[in-house]
Write a structure and sequence with these properties.
It is a single chain. This protein has 151 residues and is mostly helical. The chain folds into 2 domains: 74 residues, 434 Repressor (Amino-terminal Domain); 57 residues. It is 68% helix and 0% strand. The protein is elongated, with a radius of gyration of 19 Å. The relative contact order is 0.12.
């Protein structure tokens, strides 16, 4: 995961139009330190990542950083980095799937109890919801094309 973080640290810094020197100044760290992050030698502490998110205007850098630690890796869905168009299509297919199992959600959850005979159905619901969460994050972190508009 350090390598993935490093890749997007470089990509997102460049998209923000910053050199390593400029980014280091805004992040209140040395150029050597930012180089270590971008080479995958180390991960930044959370306060630096927070500034990166704001400075680079990048949700995905924070998401990838969270996935680098054990708890984030365990709780957050593995989200593919896709182009915007692909992520929208993926989201639409996951929404359709959740809509198809809506009856199961109601049937199993209406009484607040998951009976033993409902466990298998509920596992399918949980899987579909996790897939939907991943698709939502994928849209938020998608690589969008520049609009090409001039103002």
């Amino acid at each position: 995961m350090k390598e993935l973080f490093a890749k997007y640290a470089i990509t997102d810094r460049r998209k923000a139009g910053l050199t390593q020197e400029q980014a280091a100044e805004k992040l209140h760290i040395s150029v050597r330190t930012i180089s270590d992050y971008e080479c995958g030698k180390s991960l930044p502490p959370d306060d630096v990542v927070e500034i990166m998110i704001d400075t680079y205007k990048s949700v995905r850098i924070g998401y990838i950083w969270l996935r680098c630690n054990r708890i984030g890796h365990r709780l957050l869905p593995n989200t593919p980095m896709q182009h915007f168009e692909s992520s929208i299509l993926h989201l639409q297919s996951r929404l359709k799937r959740v809509n198809e199992i809506n009856g199961i959600i109601v049937d199993v959850g209406w009484d607040g109890v998951i009976e033993e005979q409902e466990i298998e159905q509920w596992e399918k619901v949980t899987e579909a919801l996790n897939d939907l969460a991943s698709a939502i994050f994928s849209v938020q972190m998608a690589q969008k094309k520049p609009s090409g508009k001039t103002t």
